[in-house]
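Lab manual, section 2.4: Encoding a predicted structure.

Procedure: take the sequence of the chain (416 residues), apply the prediction step described in section 2.3, and record the output as structure tokens. A sample record is shown.
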Amino acid sequence: MLMFIMALYTVYVLFRIYISIMQIGFINRAKRQQAVLLNTAEYLQAAEYAVVKEKLSIIGTFIEFLLFVFWLDSGIAWLDNLFLIQDDALKAVAVVLSFIVIGGIAHLPLEWYQKFVIDAKFGFNRSSYAQYIKDTVISTLLTLVLGGLVVYAVAQIILSSTLWWLWSFLFIFGVIVLLNMFFPTLRALFFDKLSPLDDEELDAKIATLMEQTGFQSSGVFVSDASKRDARLNAYFGGLGKNKRVVLFDTLIQKLSHNELIAVLGHELGHFSHGDIYKNIAAMGGMLFVMFAIFGNIPESLYLELGIAQSPAVVMILFMLLMSLLSFVMMPIMGILSRHNEFAADKKGAELGGEEHLVSALTKLVTENKSFPLSHPLYMFFYYTHPPVLERFKELGVDIYCGESSALEGECPTPVR
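Recorded output:
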């Protein structure tokens, strides 16, 4: 059983690297062709950014594989014997949190390099070293506190029921729903400062838009995200009465009122179609399958590992294999998500105007340096949103940029 899992994980890692290599080759070929959507300078820069990120991703995948081998070879047994705690639930908290911290430390250099070298080079990172350290410390403490409580509860479930996998699934699913409800509040408390939108004209337009769709929220807020990053974004956070509309200050700076309304119209399209609840249901189904698989792992695996089937070991194995199971299931989620995005685009065009939605999406691609093309295999496994060119095509908009030899100039506006 152990050799089978090792072989399966090795194939998974090699396939991920293969997809990354195919994506890098595709982008390197595409960047030598005529630029689309962006002018040539922007097109080449977006291509370079995508390739550099993908190369870093390959290194991250390799580190993940080395950690996997270490943990299965002797790491889990070492960590399990490190803490001489009699209470199995408390021991699970110590062992599992140590496992998480060690994994985080191993990936920390790549995270730092991504932010302070790659993102800084391409003009995204605005975070200082002090801000980064502060955010990392707060994130770690939140993980230790909230994660510790969750681990303790799951450990108690494992110890008290033979159907632990079912009750653990229900518990974890409930935690995820609660986190979705209170995510904007937690983010505002510890990371971003949220301020009420002070643009009365825009606020009135957003209020009218929400009335059209029956969307009720606790307010429209602006996040000071620009202190960390230059990317444009917005999100509808929370569930029920805790729903909030949060606009990044970078988005407000770059988009016109009409473009913002079109973007929010897209997000409200998700609300009107019930996509939030569909996504939660799909995620719940995926989690259920994962827990069902782990609830039926043969005891021989633990014998081969030379360790007892304790709550800590069960949870560590779950986290180690979760990426593999997610990778297999994510294409299904991706297909559903891309379908929902097309439908939300139509709603955004209806509520905010097709030309404004197209203009907004073009600015998002340009400002976020998103390369507009992708290898089909990469798209199948990783894309939750359709490529922007496909989104435009679905809206009946043709994209063409004739400028391909010079390094300056503007790409023509998309036209029907």
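Check your result against the sample. The first helix runs from residue 2 to 30.
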